[in-house]
Amino acid sequence: FKQYVENLITKSKVKWNDIGGLEEVKMLMMETVVISALQRPESIQPWKGILLFGPPGTGKTLLASAAAGSLNATFFSVKASNVLSKYFGESTKIISALYEVAREKAPSIVFMDEIDALTTRRSGDQSEASRRMLSTLLTELDGFQDKKSDILVLTLAATNTPWDLDEAVLSRFPRRIYVPLPDEKATKEIIKINTRGLDISRLDLDAIAEESVRRLYSGRDLKNLCQEAIWHMIREENRDLHKLAELPYEKLRRRSLKTRPLEMR
Ligand code: ATP
Q1: Burial 218-239 (b: 16+ CB within 10 A, else e)
Q2: Greater model confidence, 109 or 231
Q3: ipTM computed for the complex
Q4: Among 261, 234, 230, CA closest to 247
Q5: pLDDT value at position 76?
Q6: Binding pocket residue ranges, ligand 1, CB within 6 Å
């Protein structure tokens, strides 16, 4: 199990300025993660868990990765559904091993994606394996900090469906951060980040941003759009990215914007 867990460690190369928009979210993350971890007065316990929630592709993984990078922390990236499908009956051992290694290699950040895959609320169809995995996770979240308070292991959990989380989970994540779809300003920043080093001077970024926001594009959609435009540019041996404005937006999935800020922060 330890071997499996070691493979979950990724080297974080993401910097805060690789993330477009999300100014407020980045500030909150920096304050919560960096300041409370490094400069907190002794009387304050560091946060153990932060919940990032919002529509898919809005940068939750990027934020967790940037937080790990800025702390120089060991970064474990875990998808709950992967652990369950791979180690069905033994997912609890994976979780225990995960936190054991995270403590050994502290400071650590455990990024637990799709935490909703483990919870009960959805309809009572939760499997025994996911129930046990969740209960081990909650025990880990409760437990270790008391044993040795100078070991920092921070769990960042992410979900697109916060309404699926039950009280047992929510109560372990008192700090909850909404990661929204990009507005026009953020959209322009994300396009610039994803076209670094390329000539975008002929692009009407305002028009592209307006259209993208109207279509509820996420950061991931924008990245895909940029990639597509770069391919056109290479294929046509062009020097600029004029196709970005002409790309078949329709091909990208239109989303229904279900995830709203809720009363969650
Ligand atoms: P999911 O909920 O589907 O797991 P997510 O919210 O974790 O998605 P990420 O994996 O962080 O989203 O983002 C996917 C990709 O989209 C990133 O690798 C990045 O290239 C791009 N992206 C998303 N948001 C931003 C952003 N704010 N700034 C720059 N790039 C972004």
Answers
A1: bbbbbbbbbebbbebbeeeeee
A2: 109
A3: 0.97
A4: 230
A5: 94
A6: 19-22, 56-62, 113, 158, 160, 190, 193, 219-220, 223
